[in-house]
Structure formats: structure tokens, C-alpha cells
């Protein structure tokens, strides 16, 4: 399937004409610009994607009448003079936004392939927010192309407001508005006000004389308009704009080409050994929309140079395979999230949160407490990212444990967890993980805990496997196969495994307690350990550990007050990665059938737009910090705690995701994995993936693949490496590079990340089945 991206070619300059309203003179301005650009470039094209009204009044015909050398064309013409969304109802086939975008891109690509210095003027229909044939706004329809814009303002009564509103609508969607132009008007003088208004916002504005009154005789009228176009096209403001636009086009390309080299000099990238980086491998992101980045790299441009017959765009759409570092949920450039952010910014800006409250923060806290479905959880603490959210959770748990068990500050309090875990980069969260590549060379790292190795769930050669580490097989048994992914979570039919796991943990915890070790908290990533290598932990094993720590309370643990109080030690679920529908459910805890005392959420919380994290705790945890002493309080926070913009975006994000769930938007994915089940419109029943069952099975049978798994939006492919698996492996690098550099006439590529020998891919919760299938085809085609 085809995915189009930003339309940017070296020799073809494309300018989009937007009107702040209907009847502001878009086609008149287009004629003026066609003449002006025609004096500077070899070829001028005029493209009207959608037009309504009688054919003899069509805008492309008007252009041809006064500029016969201009190649003018309309892609979708409707005879009825009404809004496109109404006119399109009579069409024999639905005209989708994607089909219009593809048609425009194909037409522009043909212009670029001519190899001449040229310009294409793309004129929209109606105003900025006028409906497209599909019913979406034009501003959203054309956004994936991200064409530079000349906004045509309204010179009539009320036009100041309409022009400013149109500019804001484009600006908030990520368009670059090159200039604002409008007709002069002696009575209202809109142009004078708008020129000053936009000058303060660094947007150039100019005005031209309006066209002459229509003549009674058609021949005289044509002659009059020709004279008008010739005169105005030589106007200094018009020629100044055309020259400025051509210069800005060339500058945009220079900036893209220079960005990687400048970044190599100025940027310290995260999670990267910089000896592996060069200016040729740094990827410049011009923009992003939906599931795709718009990317440029030097290597990419060199690979695209062909035989000269085709002139590919400078920018290439790349499927965001890492969900933009696991944050992306509702598509890049989502206008609803952008509007939510703008509204909160306009209403609040930044308001301090100490001893205060604002509606976005209150609403979000209430939504989380309800949505997590955990009766233990009562209080929400706000931070800015996953690491600090976990840092707060650890402080909460250790205080509660120390207070109840009457430990002193001299006691060495440890954390219980899993091997290969990773909970963040702050010093405290690093100490919650075993020694690894992430922390062993950090000078303050101590590794204060005990970490259990665990059985992994894998799909190997088409069969689901619970793979037990060799050193645990004596107590946990050998590897065993299960009939399906759903059976992995069917604990009622896994009683033998439950007994083995329970006995193992009872024995291990008793031994640790007998050694005098003091554990202040259990912390785990439910189901899926992310940064540690995309490891699918047997969820029943995790469930049994939670049960064990709550039952093996020890002799100095104190008593729980009620069923919602913590027992043994506080249990923390790190759902920074796995929560908020990443695995197909609002809360990953629902897979385990046990509830934590503290849960941390981030990443998908705001749909990938803005940093925000929450640490939600039980009443008993909260009460551990209550006293008459200020020093007993949870003295943690930062200046942007519960930032109103982040909370506003999170409310919109969670509302949208909940609506997707309740409307049955994911039913096609669910039915692929649960063909015999009755799939309802709502609820969290069943286990499913956005990646098709057939594809995942096929990948698992590939000779280069050790194992694979898929759950929710996550796919992980572990490649065989004779040198051993793990974070230091490079086995997946070549596959990653092939997916990004794929040629052969392909119009889009895949941008992905690897963890050692594991290549992982994630979708947004809004990704279509068609896009998923396209990604799957590319993965299969490049597994070699």
C-alpha cells in the first residue's frame, strides 16, 4: 500500500493557496502568481484538487484562459455548486482523504520528474476549515503533504477575525504560512490592521488592488482582466513574495541537508555510543503525521539517486516503528491533542501546583483512579516522566515499609524484582535493577535488591512455549508448550504451573528472610519487560510472586488494616511502558489478576504529545507520610508538577482511547486472535494483537528467527545470534537498516529501534489494519 509524505523536491517548488473564507479571490491570486512565477521559472503548474460548480466556471479553466502556458488541472470536479462533502455524496465511490492525498502526490511527482525548474500552485476549495469530500477539514486533509502556504485573507467586513482564525488553525496544525495576502479595501482597511498584526508574529503580509468591475461585454471583460493580471503580477509586493518564496524553498532544503552535520557538532544523543554515529547516519525529522515521520538523511538521499528518470522527494515517509520511543498512541500531529494543548496553554499557561488544584489535574486523577480498576488506589501524585514517577513510587514504598516494620535509617532496605528489569535513569531507579549495561558504569550505582530470573513466553516455530531458564528447570520444570496465546493467560488450566511457581517462591522468600534481608518493596513490569530486551515474562509467574510476598509476611511486618491495605511489602507495578492500552488493555495489571499498591503510568498517558507521569497509590501508602512534622512529608516534586497542558492533553488522550475501545474499533484485530469468541463492542476480555496471527506465526518459522511474540500493539522479533543474545548483540542491526533503506521504488520505509538481537515494532492504537499489513510485508521481505 502507498503512503505519501511531505512534498518537497529540489527543482519543483510547491505552494499551497489557502483561503480564510470563500470568495476571497484565491483563483485571482493564483492567476497573478502564475504570471509572476512564469517570468522566473521554466514551467508553472496549477492544480485544483477538488472543485465544485459548473464546468464552464471551473478554476482551472479560468487559469488556462489567462495563462495558456500554464498546465492547469483539476483532480476531482463536481458539477453541483455546494460544499465538497455534499457534492461528493452523489459520487459512485467514496473519496477518502488518503486517495486525494495520493492523487496530489502522484501529480506533483510527475511534475518533478520532468526535471525542469518549476512551480506548482495547489489551490484549495473554500476556507481553511471547509469540509473536504470525506467531511474532514481541508486543514487536516492536506496536512500530511505539509506544503508551504500563502494564506489569502479576507478584505471584507469581519475579515480580520476570519483571517486570524484561519492562520491560527493552520499554525496549530504545523503548517508553515509563508505570507498572508489580501485585496486592499478602502472602507474596512483590513490589510492595514493585518499587516501590523502578523508583523508581530514574523509573518509577511501584502495587499494588492482588487480586480476591476466586470464588463457587460465578455470580450471586454477578458481584455480588462488580462490587463489587470499583467499589471498586478509586476507589482513589487507580488514579485517580492515570489522571490522570497523561491529563496525559502532553497533554504529549507539546505537546512535539511545541513542539520545532521550541525547535530554531529552540537548534540549529545541519548542511549548511543557516539563513535557509532556520523553526520551521514543522523536522521533529520522535518515533521510527523499519523503513523509516519518525514525523514531526511544523507545516506537516504544518496541511495535515492537513480537513472534521472525519477526525481524522488527530499523527504521520505518512515513508519514510526518504535512508537516514537514507546510514547505514540494517537498518531503524530493529532489535531485534537494539539487543540487540547492549546486550550490548556491559553487558559492556564503554567500554574503552580503546591497546595492548589486545577480542573485538568483533578479530572485526570479521577479518570485514572476509575480507569485502573483497582480498589486499592486512591491518590495520584504527578511527575514529569517514567523515571521520576518510579523514583517517587520507591520513596513511597520504602517509607511505608520502614514505618510499619519499625526499621531505622541504618537498616539496609532492598528491593525485590526481576532480572533484566529496567525502571529508569535516576540514581534511585537504577538501584532497583540488577547490574547491566545501563548502570554498572554509573559511579553511584549500588544495585540494592534481589532479582528473580523468570520463565519467558515465546512463539517458536509456530508453537507457544513457556521457556524456563536452565538454572531453574530443577524446580520449575522443563519448557512446555501451550496451545495458544490466550492459554498463556488462562490460569485456571495451569494449576500445575501455579503450584510449581508458588512452592518456588515460598522457598526463596523464606531463605531470603532467614538471611536477615529486609525488602521494602516488590517492583515489576507486568507481562513485558521493555528496555531489558522486550522479554515476555510468564504472567502466571509474576502473579505467583505477588501472592507470595503478600502471604509470606515475616515476623515484623505489622498488620494490614483491610483488604485494600498492603501486605508483606508494597507492590509497585511499573506500567510506564505496558500501561494505557499498550498491550490492548487500559491496565496491564488486569493480565495478572492481582492488583498493585502503587502503579506508575507515563508515555501513552498523553498520546505521545507531551511529557507527563503519574504515580497512583493506596490510602495506606499515603497515610505513611502523615504526621505533624514537615520532614515526614513526601518532599518530592518539580516546578512543572501537574502541568495543566500535560493534564489537558492526557484527558483528551484517555477519552479518545476509551472511545476507541468502547466503539469496537479494535474488533478486527481481536477477532483475528479470537476467531471463536464473541467479540463485543466494549470490555477487556481476551488476549489479542494488532499484528496478525498468520504473520507472527510465519515470522516464528523463519530460519533466522529464534522466537517472536506479539501482544496489543507490540511485536518483538528475536534473531538468532551465534555470539549470544542480549543488549550487546548486533544481530538485529542489519534488518533495522534494511527496513529504513529499502529501495526498489518503494514510497515509504520503516524507522525502528533494536535491543541487541531484538527488533521490535509498535503501532499506535489508531493504526489501520492496512498499514499493519504493509509493515508486515516489508518485514517479511527483508528477513534475510
UniProtKB/TrEMBL annotation:
The residue ranges crossing the membrane are none
* Gene Ontology cellular-component terms listed: mitochondrion
Keyword Hydrolase on entry: no
Annotated coiled-coil segments of the chain: none
What biological-process terms (Gene Ontology) are attached? Answer: biotin biosynthetic process
Q: Write out the annotated subcellular location.
A: Mitochondrion
Q: Which CDD domains match?
A: DTBS (cd03109)
List the protein's name.
Answer: Pyridoxal phosphate-dependent transferase
Which organism's genome codes for this protein?
Answer: Neohortaea acidophila
Amino acid at each position: 500500500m502507498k503512503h505519501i509524505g511531505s512534498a518537497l523536491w529540489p527543482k519543483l517548488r510547491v505552494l499551497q493557496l489557502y483561503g480564510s473564507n470563500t470568495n476571497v479571490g484565491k483563483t485571482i491570486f493564483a492567476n497573478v502568481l502564475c504570471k509572476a512565477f512564469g517570468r522566473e521559472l521554466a514551467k508553472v503548474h496549477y492544480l485544483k484538487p477538488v472543485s465544485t460548480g459548473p464546468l464552464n466556471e471551473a478554476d482551472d479553466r479560468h487559469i488556462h484562459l489567462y495563462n495558456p502556458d500554464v498546465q492547469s488541472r483539476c483532480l476531482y470536479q463536481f458539477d453541483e455548486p455546494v460544499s465538497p462533502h455534499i457534492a461528493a455524496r452523489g459520487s459512485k465511490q467514496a473519496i477518502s482523504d488518503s486517495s486525494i492525498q495520493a492523487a496530489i502526490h502522484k501529480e506533483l511527482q510527475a511534475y518533478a520528474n520532468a526535471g525542469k525548474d518549476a512551480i506548482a500552485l495547489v489551490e484549495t476549495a473554500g476556507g481553511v476549515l471547509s469540509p473536504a469530500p470525506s467531511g474532514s477539514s481541508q486543514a487536516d486533509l492536506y496536512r500530511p503533504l505539509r506544503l508551504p502556504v500563502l494564506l489569502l485573507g479576507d478584505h471584507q467586513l469581519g475579515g480580520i477575525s476570519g483571517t486570524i482564525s484561519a492562520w491560527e488553525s493552520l499554525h496549530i496544525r504545523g503548517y508553515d504560512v509563508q505570507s498572508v495576502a489580501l485585496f486592499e479595501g478602502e472602507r474596512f482597511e483590513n490589510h492595514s490592521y493585518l499587516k501590523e498584526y502578523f508583523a508581530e508574529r514574523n509573518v509577511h503580509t501584502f495587499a494588492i488592488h482588487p480586480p476591476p468591475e466586470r464588463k457587460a461585454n465578455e470580450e471586454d471583460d477578458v481584455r480588462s482582466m488580462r490587463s489587470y493580471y499583467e499589471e498586478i503580477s509586476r507589482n513589487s509586493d507580488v514579485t517580492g513574495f515570489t522571490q522570497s518564496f523561491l529563496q525559502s524553498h532553497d533554504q529549507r532544503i539546505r537546512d535539511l541537508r545541513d542539520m545532521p552535520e550541525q547535530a554531529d557538532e552540537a548534540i549529545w544523543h541519548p542511549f548511543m555510543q557516539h563513535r557509532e554515529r556520523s553526520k551521514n547516519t543522523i536522521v533529520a525529522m522535518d515533521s510527523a503525521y499519523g503513523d509516519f515521520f518525514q525523514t531526511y538523511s544523507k545516506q537516504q538521499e544518496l541511495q535515492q539517486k537513480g537513472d534521472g528518470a525519477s526525481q524522488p522527494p527530499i523527504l521520505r515517509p518512515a513508519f514510526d516503528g518504535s512508537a516514537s520511543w514507546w510514547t505514540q498512541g494517537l498518531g503524530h500531529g493529532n489535531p485534537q491533542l494539539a487543540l487540547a494543548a492549546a486550550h490548556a496553554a491559553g487558559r492556564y499557561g503554567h500554574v503552580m501546583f503546591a497546595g492548589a488544584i486545577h480542573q485538568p489535574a483533578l479530572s485526570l486523577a479521577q479518570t485514572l483512579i476509575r480507569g485502573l480498576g483497582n480498589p486499592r488506589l486512591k491518590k495520584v501524585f504527578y511527575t514529569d516522566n517514567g523515571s521520576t514517577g518510579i523514583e517517587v513510587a520507591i520513596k513511597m514504598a520504602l517509607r511505608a515499609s520502614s514505618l510499619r516494620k519499625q526499621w531505622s535509617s541504618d537498616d539496609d532496605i532492598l528491593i525485590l524484582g526481576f532480572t533484566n528489569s529496567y525502571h529508569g535513569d535516576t540514581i534511585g531507579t537504577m538501584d532497583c535493577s540488577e547490574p547491566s549495561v545501563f548502570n554498572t558504569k554509573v559511579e553511584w550505582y549500588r544495585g540494592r535488591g534481589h532479582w528473580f530470573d523468570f520463565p519467558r513466553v515465546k512463539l517458536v516455530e509456530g508453537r507457544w512455549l513457556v521457556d524456563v531458564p536452565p538454572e531453574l528447570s530443577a524446580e520449575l520444570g522443563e519448557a512446555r508448550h501451550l496451545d495458544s496465546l490466550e492459554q498463556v493467560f488462562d490460569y485456571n488450566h495451569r494449576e500445575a504451573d501455579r503450584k510449581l511457581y508458588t512452592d518456588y517462591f515460598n522457598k526463596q522468600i523464606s531463605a531470603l528472610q532467614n538471611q536477615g534481608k529486609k525488602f521494602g518493596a516488590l517492583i515489576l513490569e507486568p507481562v513485558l519487560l521493555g528496555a531489558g530486551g522486550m522479554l515476555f515474562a510468564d504472567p502466571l509467574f509474576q502473579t505467583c510472586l505477588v501472592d507470595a510476598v503478600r502471604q509470606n509476611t515475616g515476623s515484623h511486618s505489622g498488620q494490614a488494616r483491610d483488604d485494600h491495605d498492603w501486605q508483606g511489602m508494597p507492590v509497585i507495578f511499573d506500567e510506564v511502558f505496558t500501561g494505557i492500552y499498550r498491550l490492548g488493555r487500559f491496565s496491564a495489571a488486569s493480565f495478572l489478576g492481582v492488583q498493585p499498591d502503587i502503579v506508575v503510568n507515563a508515555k501513552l498517558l498523553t498520546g505521545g504529545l507531551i511529557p507527563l507521569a503519574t504515580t497512583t497509590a493506596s490510602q495506606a501508602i499515603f497515610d505513611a507520610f502523615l504526621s505533624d512534622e514537615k520532614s515526614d512529608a513526601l518532599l518530592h516534586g518539580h516546578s512543572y508538577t501537574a502541568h495543566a497542558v500535560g493534564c489537558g492533553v492526557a484527558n483528551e488522550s484517555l477519552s479518545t482511547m476509551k472511545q476507541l475501545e468502547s466503539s469496537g474499533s479494535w474488533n478486527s484485530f481481536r477477532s483475528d486472535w479470537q476467531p471463536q469468541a464473541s467479540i463485543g463492542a466494549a470490555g477487556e476480555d481476551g488476549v489479542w494483537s494488532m499484528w496478525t496471527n498468520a504473520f507472527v506465526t510465519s515470522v516464528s518459522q523463519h530460519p533466522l528467527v529464534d522466537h517472536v511474540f506479539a501482544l496489543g500493539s507490540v511485536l518483538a522479533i528475536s534473531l538468532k545470534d551465534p555470539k549470544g543474545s542480549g543488549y550487546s548483540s548486533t544481530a538485529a542491526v542489519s534488518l533495522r537498516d534494511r527496513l529504513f533503506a529499502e529501495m526498489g521504488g518503494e514510497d515509504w520505509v520503516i524507522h525502528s529501534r533494536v535491543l541487541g538481537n531484538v527488533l521490535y515494532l509498535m503501532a499506535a492504537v489508531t493504526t489501520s489494519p492496512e498499514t499493519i499489513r504493509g509493515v508486515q510485508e516489508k518485514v517479511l521481505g527483508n528477513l534475510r
